[in-house]
Design a protein that fits this description.
Blueprint: H1 6-21, H2 25-32, H3 37-44, H4 49-58, H5 61-70, H6 73-82, H7 85-93, H8 97-104, H9 109-117, H10 121-131, H11 138-141, E1 148-150, H12 155-165, E2 174-178, E3 184-189, H13 190-195, H14 202-205, E4 213-214, H15 219-229, E5 233-237, E6 243-248, H16 249-267, H17 280-307, H18 309-314, H19 322-346, H20 348-352, H21 354-384, H22 387-417, H23 427-448, H24 450-453
Parallel strand pairs: 1-2, 4-5
Antiparallel strand pairs: 2-3, 5-6
Length: 454
Amino acid sequence: MVKLTDQNREQYAQSIMNALTSENIEQFRQLFLELHPQDQLDFFLTLKKEQRTHVYQYLSSEEFSDIFEELELEDQKNILQELHESYAQDMISHMSADDVADFLAEIHEEKANEIIEGLEDDDAKDIKELLGYEEETAGAIMTKEFINIRAAAQVRDAINLLRNEGPDAETIYYLYVINDKHELAGVVSLRDLIIADPDTKVDVVMSSRVVSVKTSDDQEDVALLIKKYDFLAVPVVTSHNKLVGIITVDDILDVIEEEATEDFGEFAASRGATDITLSSFTAAKKRAPWIILLMFFGMITANVIGQFEETLEAYVLLAGFIPLIMDSAGNTGTQSLAVAVRSLALGTLEKKGLSKMLMREFGTGLILGLMCAIVLMLIIPLLHSSYWLALIVGLSIFLSLSIATVIGTIVPLIIHKLKLDPAIASGPFITTVNDILGLMIYFTIATSMIHLLI
């Protein structure tokens, strides 16, 4: 396999392109198949439609399946239209069952059924099973390409099994041991098999303290479990402990990316609209509900300011500090929100405790508020020659930041208790709430001390 560097990557790619355009099949295959699969994908994505047609002719369906698996969903849909029906069917038959299920779940049902009908019975059965699980569960993301062995088998049998089935398995580092009822009984590592006596029975070298997940478990919980134990794979069992699949760490990386994208969308009040392939209309449609809701919250903010109209008329300079109070409280609350959501996502909240995190964030708010207040009380008198104005703004910023950190922490925790995604306590939402509270604090203090300013 060729290892490309920045210096020779472009030159090597040009050599492949020359072989492709000159229709030198032998040279193209020699150069292209020496590449790492990811580099093959990168090269393929640079090709025009007529050039891709040559690739389909020069590569077998099995060879091209490795590239197709790594394509983004929209690219897969487009490429499928370019492939001859028999070539596409054979290519899909060489893909992992979980990758096929993921793809078929996103295309037209009639086309998906047509593809499934063209597969071998065992493959079709596995894919139908995967498609039957609820989205974002362990069952939906597991793979069926794994190796299991009977507890009564000998180590030599396990080694022979690895030789025969290893090339088609997702991973060979773990063998999962089952009993006569196909229930998960234990796990044995490749290392344990290599160093064990060939005549030893598998149940002697296996570990019976195996960690597994249920088919109905949430994929995010599976990701946390794999992270906790540093697993390369975890077995998936039914409610009756029957082994039905495994989830590997590469699948979990996809889950982490998916969950992070989802949380980022919630956090930015743009759930489902972060995909750059979406049209402007679709993106606007997905963002509109939050924007409209926040617009109504903005009307509440305007109403708060209107309630203190007399205070503003009495001392107009107070209006100049409204953006400062609002922005500072909103930004501080969003920072605490990020801390709370991250703690919930990583499970650190259960370890450190709710009260400890609340006290930490409240203490942080107090210190930040005090620091900002001191800075403002030094600068404002120099700019506006008013120590009382400095005191009002400084005290307001101190109280606003202290409360903002508590609000930013508590809201996602409450949402989490309601069994909802805490990320829906989005940055804009928390910002708007803290804007309102900050303004109320500011104008309440200003109104009570207005006689000192006039």
